[in-house]
Structures are given as structure tokens and as C-alpha cells.
Design goal:
This protein is about 35% helix and about 35% strand. The chain is of the alpha+beta class. The longest helix is centred in the last third of the chain and has 17 residues.
């Protein structure tokens, strides 16, 4: 999902860097880096990508925090 939504702007990751288990639930933390070779990305552009990722994850039943 992350790779599909980020396209060419993702240059690093997704890398799983933490896993936490409690009360029968598992939380995962991922790190990824966005970058354009042509210009500086705006917060608005990156936020739009993140919202698409959150939306896709939610439709699959995952909770994004």
C-alpha cells in the first residue's frame, strides 16, 4: 500500500523499526523517506500521500495512529 501510494517519491523504506505487543494487539512503526530529484516537496503534497495511505490501511481494517 505504501509503495503504491507513494510512487517515485519514496526513496527509502518502508522500513519496520518497531513492534509492540500488548493486550492481544500488535503495533508496528514504519519509517520511510519522500524526496523529489527535481524540487522541494511541500507539506501539502506529503500530507496528501499520507492521507491516501491511512485511507487504504483503514479500508483493510488497520488502525493508523
Amino acid at each position: 500500500i505504501i509503495l503504491a501510494e507513494c510512487g517515485a517519491l519514496i526513496v527509502q523504506g518502508p522500513t519496520l523499526f518497531d513492534e509492540f505487543k500488548k493486550d492481544g494487539k500488535v503495533s508496528y512503526a514504519f519509517r520511510f523517506v519522500f524526496q523529489s530529484q527535481e524540487r522541494t516537496l511541500t507539506d501539502k503534497e506529503v500530507n496528501a500521500i499520507m492521507e491516501r495511505i491511512y485511507s487504504q490501511m483503514h479500508t483493510l481494517g488497520f488502525m493508523v495512529r
